[in-house]
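User: Predict the structure for this protein chain, please.
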Amino acid sequence: MGAGISQAMRRPVRGNDYVASQSVPGGGALPVLPALGELLPGGLARGSVVAAGRWSLLCLALAAGASVAGAWCAVAGVPQLGVSAAIGVGLDPARLLLVPDPGPAWPQVVASLLDGCELVLLRPPDRAPAALRRRLEAVLRRRGGVLVVAGDWDGAQARLLVTRQEWAGLQPGHGRLRARRVLVAADGRGSAARPRTRWLWLPGPDGSVGLADQTAIARPDMQKTG
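Assistant: Here is the predicted structure, written as C-alpha cells:
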C-alpha cells in the first residue's frame, strides 16, 4: 500500500454520538462500542495488540466502534467474511478493506495495511513467532494503529475471550435462533490488568451488540451451549 493510498485514507473524521464517550480517531485511543466500554475502559490504545480468541462476532465488534467514528479498518485472513456481516455489527463499508487470503506473506500485508488503516483485524494462519511479533508491534507503535487478533498473541496488551454463551429462541425440539448472549472476560497488561467480565448480546434480537442482563439465570427460551 503506497504513500498515496495512505494519505487518501487519513481523512478528517467527525465525532459520532454512538461512541461519544470515547476518543475519536486521531487521539490517544480508538473508540469502542458502548457495550464494550467497561471491558476496555478508555478504548483501544494506539500501538497496541488486542487478542480476541478464535474468530467470532466479538472480533468484528471490537473494530466497530472505531469504524463508526470514521477510522479506516481492514480485515485480513477471514475469507468467509462478507460485507453484510460487517455492516450488521456496525462497520462502515466505505472505510473497510477486506483481504480474504493474505497468503504466506501476511506479515508484510498487515504492515502495509497499517500504513493506511488505523485498525487491522487479523486472523493469522498460525501462531506468530516472537521475532515476527516484535516487528509488527514496532510497526504498530510507529503508525499508531491497533491490531485486533482473532487468536492468541503472546504479549498482547489486552485479551478478551467468550467464556460462555446462550442462544435465545430455541424451544425443546423446535424454534429459531434469534440472539446470542455471551459472557466475555477481559484482562491484559498495565491499565488493562484488572480482570473484568460482562454479559453481552452478540448479537441481540435486533442484530446489534449491546449489554445483556448481568444475571446468569437463563430464561425459558435460552439454551446454554458452553
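Confidence is low (pLDDT under 50) at residues 1-25, 216-222.
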